[in-house]
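Table S2 (text version). Query chain:
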Amino acid sequence: MSIKRIARHLIEHRWKVRRDFPPRVLAAIEQAIKAGEATHAGQIRFVVEGALDGTPLFRNQPARERALDVFSHLRIWDTHHNNGVLIYLLLADRDVEIVADRGIDAKVGHAGWEAICQAMEAEFRAGRFEQGVIKGVEAVSRELAKHFPHTTDGPNELPDKPVVI
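Corresponding structure-token output:
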């Protein structure tokens, strides 16, 4: 466990989320998710967590493992076509993880998701958080549209509103 990581998580906590993701930005991300879901039958959730607290931090939980916990907790796996996708940002680590249900993950694969994550992280390094998330949502939507085209009878199974932890 790195003392530097612990310090970063303790110092950069929730204030950074409020600064980088004010209500206007969260609303823009929600609209991007709605627009994307109009082009496919998949489900996208965006979660931003400022920093890890308590046990996850002191267990040195990696962002990927935390993203899997969030994916499960938000029941993103509970979609009719197994095509839910979580875009998870752990802000203190500047780490983006995409966790996809088995229906879409088998079609896109690790390399496809990782390319989207890297593009988002490049935007974040430049301080463009809103643009980075929206570009990520658009890229995930393109993948979902390829493999799960829009249907008129499909309900919106998961909320589009971003989650701030």
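Notes on Table S2: The chain has one domain: 3-164. The domain at 3-164 is CATH 3.10.310.50 (Diaminopimelate Epimerase; Chain A, domain 1).
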